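Pipeline run #58 for the internal structure catalog. This entry was flagged by the ingest filter as a single-chain record with no existing model, so it goes straight to prediction. Upstream metadata was stripped on purpose; only the residue string is passed forward. Reviewer on rotation: M.T. Logging verbosity set to normal.
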Amino acid sequence: MTYKIALNFEDGVTRFIDSNPSETVADAAYRQGINIPLDCRDGACGTCKCFAEAGQYDMGQEYIEDALTEDEAAQGYVLTCQMRAESDCVVRVPASSDVCRTQQASYSGAITAVEQLSDSTIALKIKGEALSKLAFLPGQYVNLQVPGSDQTRAYSFSSLQRDGEVSFLIRNVPGGLMSSFLTGLAKAGDSMNLAGPLGSFYLREIRRPLLLLAGGTGLAPFTAMLEKIAEHGSAHPLHLIYGVTNDLDLVEMDRLQALAASIPNFTFSACVANPDSQHPLKGYVTQHIEPAHLNEGDVDVYLCGPPPMVEAVSQYIRDKGITPANFYYEKFAASAA
């Protein structure tokens, strides 16, 4: 039996390794060409101290207090030279991928579908044999190279990887390099290159209620997260508020309905900012956050949207005098040509 260990480096690069129950995480990483910083390998120096964000593991007793205190261990810190995985794990490494002699992985695939869901949103699917080996944490993104150029654009996965196929929701930016390619030139079979996965915005272990806030194509990471939650379920309530500017910007509503049907504790609402909207819920996402969603602070908030939305939500929560247990967010801005 082997376990998947996601190593998240401080420069945003994530690499996945396989670890056997009989080997330490540091040894497993080294076996696969990744050098987590360490000096002693004996649990005495603390050089390999990392933070385990998710998963089950055994630390044994072969380390000293100077290397890892009891309080640190209780918080989730680990010594990778002693840590042996007992499940899939996510480990945050306080060093860059370059220092650890690794780099973001590159993949190639072919376009299988390009669909303009609305004037503002394009759905893209890419498939390839190499992509069947791509692993990522739901919520993360990759850099997609724009065919015919040396430039890349960052997009979050909007689904899990299945049979070598991945999907994205892409904002249609007038004059945008990627948008122009997808709306004018792209066709099934065209090759595309991806590099990643990247990013610290991803689904953590669900330990309390979740409030998910999406703006526009910021919905993408949440549909990937919800697909993962649908596989394993959740003992805690989850609520998504999805906000757009105009009625026609609302996309993937049928998909959200299907996810709500498959996840018993999941509910969602959608709102439109345009005051002339015909949609039942008007206004911004902050106008539709209810006290129960914040659960007096015992909540993990995930937010993905443009910078003004991130700032508005942050201010709203501060004004309510509530400090969420965790507040994860990702800002995105459109790139023109």
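catalog note: The chain has a mean pLDDT of 92.
catalog note: The chain has seven helices and 18 strands.
status: ready for reviewer M.T.
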